[in-house]
TrEMBL record:
Keywords of this entry: Nucleus
Compartment(s) of residence: Nucleus
Sequence similarity: Belongs to the Integrator subunit 2 family.
Organism: Hyalella azteca (Amphipod)
A GO biological process held by the record: snRNA 3'-end processing
Protein's UniProt name: Integrator complex subunit 2
Location of region: Disordered: 637-659
Primary residence: nucleus
Transmembrane segments: none
Gene Ontology, cellular component aspect: integrator complex
Source taxon at top rank: Eukaryota
Length: 1266
């Protein structure tokens, strides 16, 4: 087919040729040279012989182009002959031999051609047979070798042993072209037998595998990704440690050089599968070289030294990856490759050479110490990468090729910009993380001069950053602080946070950099003075990156350096709190905590100053200045009517100027003195501005909500630590706390926890300890009701005066008040308090009048609940004042109750208008206020005991003989007992008042003739019983105390039925104690009344909770009554018998097993009564006659037997109350007709008889005897 032209035997596949073939661009292929298209001739010949699918002009033109390309190339003739062989027969023989090789004990032990089906009767050697054979036999020879290697690979081998097949056809370069052509055509014609991935894995064990696989893939571009993935997936985790790994590495690199667009895919596959890290590095370096050698859009080449490719970013991403497995995989590779020599070929060596070249290229731009602006970001990335290589895998830097250039780059002077600040911060961290850079004296001197230059130029950098960024000055100051206090591990943590990587430098290697910072640049006094006068960060929030002045002040406070040098930091803390905004910076809560501890001295004494307290607490005036602003908005809206423009502002600062100086620069040797003089001048100016601000009493607040939350946290933490402070401290007044919207601020912190992370939990902890009344469960569950749109729009506007007028007319025209209350529910929080709080509480007594609709009271409670969510403590006091009873005389004046009065005596809440106890909605508010003030009183007493513990102990010790301290502990125990007794007394008194309030009262209209009043009484009782249930569950001792004190017996039944927690009387088993009280503690008559109270309580508990434990208590009560009847005097016995009839019948009805004891007790009572009447001086005919007329003998039994009780149906149906009434009536009748002195005994016998009848009848019906 034309004249033969000599072609290079192993010509590589060029990228543009592969790309043209992949796209079937025949025009581009026709422009290529013959030696360039030689590797893809098998594909082109096959394309020319295949009939086209469609006969279009484009396909015809492409076919002609292919034929034009192939014309004149002699090798094409051999390929055409190869394509003419009988492939179906070859395929059949291939399968037979493959099956034969797979059999156990088959042909694996011999050579490739021994017993082969594909190749038979070989006379000469393999190479000679290959040269002398026709194309079909050549193909059979190659396939036989491939099948043999496939079979050998399936044999078990040691893990790290790499199998290599020596073959003349694959080893000799002279056969390379023919072998490549034959295999390319074989893969194309036998796709079902030779899969690309399996063939590539087999060819890896032959010589010239990379180029051979590249030739085969070049003729089948569609198989590129499959072959590439197969080689990488089957690769090792560390590819440079084995021969097979190196072979795979060279193969993939050859494939990616042929198709550079797939290099990034191959690298991604390596990283994703944690395979072949050396290959990933080589691919990255090859991509960078390709980018360097490729022309730009203007035709010029890329300049050396620029950030070409992504070598730095890729390696940094591997070392600093969030995937721990990925970091460990690459770090293990670096540690293994680091053991090789610098010039030994490997991926790490190539990477270090590339990075070293980039270092030198960056330094070529520098004629002075200045670093060009275009090179700042690449230099920062390079420094960070070297730090990662040094610390994570433990790479040791080369002294000449890496350490010296790295220090020269690090100590360059960048331009004043944000990128320059980042470069300087990174360089400072690199000096600490890589102490090897300071190994030489010249390097140490250079680093010292550079740090001094940083101190001098910091203000210029901070001014360039603006208001919302941070300079490197804070980082430098923090490093100096930690070096001075010896917290070297904290420095490493600081550097790790700045570089966003884990720094593993040993603290013992930081001696040189520590000496530079602490002796040549910063002394301890200079550090303290500078930090105290540093400008606050305006608008400090969590979004600000880097290290800020707040970090410096925090660490200085924590290390007590301010205390050692007597520097007051209070004004700076206050200004920084006022200049904070959301989202809150995470250091601020910790800053407040260490500040409070420094104020109170709870952080321990400073060295050299055991009792010195330098910092002052924030004054109440300064706190109230912040709370002068509206707390219902995050903006700085002040409640006062003064214009904002008239308020003085704090001193304006330009960024974070840490080192204030007057005039220009100074020599490095006098840097510390100049800085100190600048600090002193700044102190004078700052003190003057501070005094002016304090004189005016105004402050500028950047975010009201953030500042108020921080000050609230400060106050609560101060009060918490003040109680245990070693010295007497300033105490904030209760008036200050009453003016703070604590509940509202807490609700905002709960709602916006994403903005105030960490502060909400601390506030909850402190509030639950100091203000438990603000942490009630029902308040957490409360949600403001969604008010429906008002259907009526009254002409009266919603103002305090209109609300007060509507309250006064609520009885005659409740509609107006109802509409105004609905409009109050629709108001926003910031308006509701100012409009509704004062009139609704001051005119509350109008709602106590008769005929006020219930819906008005319900709407009032809803509005009150909303107000309670804003300023609860103020609202509680106003509500108590509004419900106070009318003074006597009515025109007299009385002193209004303050919150201190209510905390000291919570019972003032119940000294209200008596009509409140018949208004259930208002009584719920009173009960709520009572609970909160009881909690307040309990907390106040506990805090008062803690705050006066030291003084009380000193007084007790002084009063003791000889001043011994042995009485201090008993004295404290006595104080605890007295406090607990006072608390129980208050709570039990409140319970007794509430119980008395639910007794029917004729003056309140309670009676059978008024059904509405009875319903109101039942509702009020349910409110009181709900309070009792919560109180008894909270403190079971209170339930015990209340019942030991006693209350009206007619309330026992309702209390037991309405208070579920009354079961504690049975569970805690204190009723036996109530029965066994010493008799001498009471008068005899009172003792009998107490026993009757206990008996009635036992009966009602048995009726409500019939349990085995209740049965034992009931049996004990019956035994006690039996004993008392026999030992009491006549009058007490009569009182006991008459009072115990009803509970005894109840016990007998509930527990049938007690019938015998109860019946015997009733008989005993009747006998004793009869005997007492018999021994009296005067005769008693009436007693015997009355008993006889009722059919009862002296023993209490019927003269006709038990059936007589069943005949009297009327008596069987009488209740307990009717029995008592009937007995009393019969006694009165007999007393009127027969005047004698035994009327009381006569009535008792009748009552016992009726009780006995009732007991027998009910027991008979229950047990179904009759």
């Amino acid at each position: 087919m034309g004249k033969h032209k000599k072609i290079h035997l192993s010509a590589p596949v060029l990228p543009h040729v592969f790309k043209a073939l992949e796209r079937a661009d025949m025009v581009a292929l026709s422009q290529c040279k013959e030696e360039e298209i030689r590797p893809i001739l098998p594909c082109l010949v096959r394309m020319s012989l295949i009939a086209p699918i469609e006969n279009t002009m484009e396909s015809t033109a492409a076919r002609k182009a292919i034929l034009k390309i192939l014309s004149g190339i002699e090798t094409v003739n051999a390929m055409v002959a190869l394509l003419s062989v009988d492939f179906p027969t070859l395929e059949s023989d291939f399968k037979k031999e493959q099956q034969l090789r797979q059999k156990a004990g088959g042909l694996n032990s011999g050579g490739a051609q021994e017993g082969s089906i594909l190749v038979q009767n070989l006379i000469n050697g393999l190479a000679l047979e290959f040269e002398c054979s026709e194309p079909l036999k050549r193909l059979r020879l190659l396939l036989s070798e491939i099948i043999y290697v496939m079979a050998q690979l399936k044999e078990p081998r040691p893990a790290h042993e790499w199998y290599h097949k020596e073959c003349e056809l694959f080893d000799n370069q002279c056969y390379f072209e023919e072998v490549a052509d034959i295999l390319s055509i074989g893969v194309s014609e036998l796709p079902g037998l030779l899969s690309p991935g399996e063939l590539a894995e087999t060819l890896l064990h032959f010589s010239n595998a990379p180029h051979l696989i590249a030739r085969i893939v070049a003729n089948q571009p569609d198989y590129f990704k499959e072959v590439l993935s197969s080689i990488i997936i089957n690769g090792e985790a560390q590819d440079e440690d084995t021969e097979g790994g190196l072979m795979r590495q060279r193969t993939v690199r050859t494939l990616c050089l042929m198709n550079p667009s797939m290099a990034l895919y191959a690298r991604h596959l390596c990283v994703e599968l944690y395979r072949m890290p050396g290959l990933a590095l080589y691919l990255t370096l090859d991509a960078a070289k390709n980018a360097f050698s490729s022309p730009n859009s203007d035709g010029s080449l890329c300049c050396e030294g620029t950030d070409v490719g992504d070598v730095v970013s890729f390696v940094s991403g591997l070392l600093l990856s969030p995937d721990q497995h990925q970091r460990a995989w690459f770090a293990a590779y670096v540690k293994s490759a680091h053991k090789r020599a610098w010039d030994e070929p490997c991926g790490l060596s190539s990477l270090r050479c590339e990075l070293s070249e980039r270092l030198c290229a960056l330094l070529l731009f520098r004629t002075t110490h200045l670093l060009p602006a275009s090179q700042v970001i690449p230099a920062t990335a390079l420094l960070r990468l070297y730090t990662a290589l040094k610390n994570l895998p433990g790479l040791k830097l080369h002294e000449e090729k890496e350490v010296t250039p790295l220090l020269q780059l690090l100590t360059c002077q960048p331009p004043v910009s944000a990128a320059g600040v980042r470069f300087v911060s990174t360089g400072l961290c690199v000096l600490i993380a890589c102490p090897q850079l300071l190994s030489a004296a010249e390097n140490e001197r250079r680093a010292s001069e550079w740090i001094k230059w940083l101190v001098k130029e910091e203000k210029h950098f901070s001014g360039a950053l603006g208001e919302w960024s941070s300079s490197f000055g804070a980082l430098l100051l923090l490093v100096a602080i930690h070096f001075h206090v010896g917290q070297l591990s904290a420095i490493l943590e600081l550097v790790s946070a700045a570089l966003n990587m884990r720094v593993t430098t040993k603290t013992a290697n930081l001696a040189r950099i520590r000496h530079i910072v602490t002796h040549e640049v910063f002394t301890e006094s200079v550090v303290t003075l500078i930090a105290s006068k540093v400008s606050v960060t305006r608008g400090l929030n969590a979004a600000l990156p880097g290290f800020l002045p707040v970090h410096c002040v925090y660490h200085l406070l924590k290390s007590r350096m301010f205390t050692r040098h007597r520097v007051n930091i209070k004004n700076w803390i206050y200004r920084q709190i006022c200049n904070s905004r959301a989202p809150m910076h995470p250091v601020l809560p910790s800053l407040v905590e260490v500040y409070v501890r420094s104020v109170l001295g709870t952080d321990g004494p400073a060295p050299g100053h055991p009792t010195a307290l330098t910092n002052d607490p924030i004054s109440e005036t300064e706190i109230l200045a912040v709370f002068e602003y509206s707390s219902f908005s995050s903006e700085t809206q002040k409640r006062a009517t003064s214009s904002r423009s008239t308020r003085p502002r704090l001193r304006q600062t330009g960024g974070h100027r840490l080192y204030l100086r007057q005039g220009g620069g100074a020599p490095d040797g006098r840097l510390a003195d100049v800085a100190a003089r600048g600090v002193v001048e700044a102190m004078e100016v700052d003190d003057q501005n501070t005094s002016n601000n304090e004189a005016v009493g105004k402050v500028e607040v950047r975010c009201v909500l953030t500042s108020q939350l921080l000050l609230l946290y400060y106050l609560l933490l101060y009060e918490d630590l003040r109680l245990t402070a070693p010295q007497q401290q300033v105490t904030y007044s209760a008036t200050l706390f009453s003016q703070l919207p604590i509940r509202y601020l807490l609700a905002r912190a709960q709602r916006d926890q994403a903005l105030y992370g960490g502060l909400y939990s601390a506030l909850i902890r402190l509030l639950a300890h100091h203000y438990p009344q603000l942490c009630l469960v029902e308040d957490w569950l409360y949600k403001p009701p969604v008010a429906p749109p008002s259907l009526l729009s009254p002409r009266t506007p919603l103002t305090p005066s209109s609300l007060q007028r509507a309250m006064s007319e609520c009885r005659s025209s409740p509609g107006l008040l109802l509409v105004l209350l609905q409009r109050c529910l629709q108001l926003p929080s910031q308006r509701l308090w100012s409009v509704a709080a004062a009139p609704l509480t001051a005119s509350l007594h109008y709602l106590l009048e008769e005929d006020v609709p219930r819906t008005v009271l319900d709407h009032y409670v809803l509005v009150w609940r909303r107000l309670n969510a804003m300023y609860p403590r103020r609202l509680w006091a106003m509500t108590v004042e509004g419900l106070r009873a009318v003074p006597h005389p009515p025109g007299g004046r009385r002193r209004p109750l303050t919150e201190d009065d209510l905390v000291l005596d919570p019972l003032n809440v119940l000294r209200c208008d008596p009509r409140v106890y018949r208004r259930a909605p208002l009584l719920q508010l009173v009960e709520y206020v009572l609970r909160v003030y009881l909690l307040s009183s309990r907390t106040f007493l506990a805090q008062h005991q803690l705050s006066t513990a030291a003084a009380a102990a000193e007084a007790a010790a002084a009063a003791a003989a000889g001043g011994s301290l042995a009485l201090v502990a008993p004295f404290e125990e006595e104080r605890d007992k007295l406090r607990n007794a006072l608390i129980l007394t208050q709570e039990s008194a409140a319970v007794q008042i509430l119980l008395e309030s639910i007794l029917p009262d004729a003056s309140q209209g309670d009676g059978p003739s008024s059904p509405g009043s009875l319903l109101a009484l039942q509702e009020v009782q349910s409110v009181v019983f709900s309070y009792l249930h919560q109180a008894f569950i909270k403190d079971t001792t209170l339930a015990k105390l209340v019942h030991f004190q006693g209350y009206p017996r007619e309330l026992i039944g309702p209390v037991v039925q309405g208070v579920p927690s009354m079961h504690v009387a049975v569970g805690l088993n204190w009723i036996p104690e109530l029965l066994q009280l010493p008799q001498q503690q009471h008068r005899q008559r009172c003792s009998v009344q107490l026993q009757l109270f206990t008996l009635h309580l036992t009966a009602q508990l048995a009726l409500q909770n019939a349990m085995p434990s209740t049965l034992s208590i009931a049996r004990l009560a019956v035994n006690v009554v039996t004993t008392l009847i026999g030992v009491l005097a006549c009058e007490d016995r009569v009182l006991l018998v008459r009072g115990s009839l009803v509970p005894l019948v109840t016990l007998g009805r509930v527990f049938p097993c007690l019938l015998q004891d109860v019946t015997q007790l009733l008989c005993t009572g009747a006998r004793l009564t009869r005997a007492h009447a018999a021994i009296l001086p005067a005769p008693a005919p009436l007693l015997y006659g009355a008993c006889a007329s009722d059919g009862v003998d002296g023993a209490g039994a019927s003269s006709d037997g038990l059936p007589a009780f069943g005949a009297e149906n009327k008596q069987e149906k009488l209740g307990e109350t009717e029995l008592k009434a009937e007995a009393a009536q019969s006694s009165d009748n007999r007393a009127a007709s027969h005047v004698n002195k035994f009327a009381e005994e006569d009535a008792i016998v009748v009552e016992v008889t009726q009780a006995f009848r009732r007991l027998v009848v009910e027991s008979s019906m229950r047990l179904k005897i009759y």
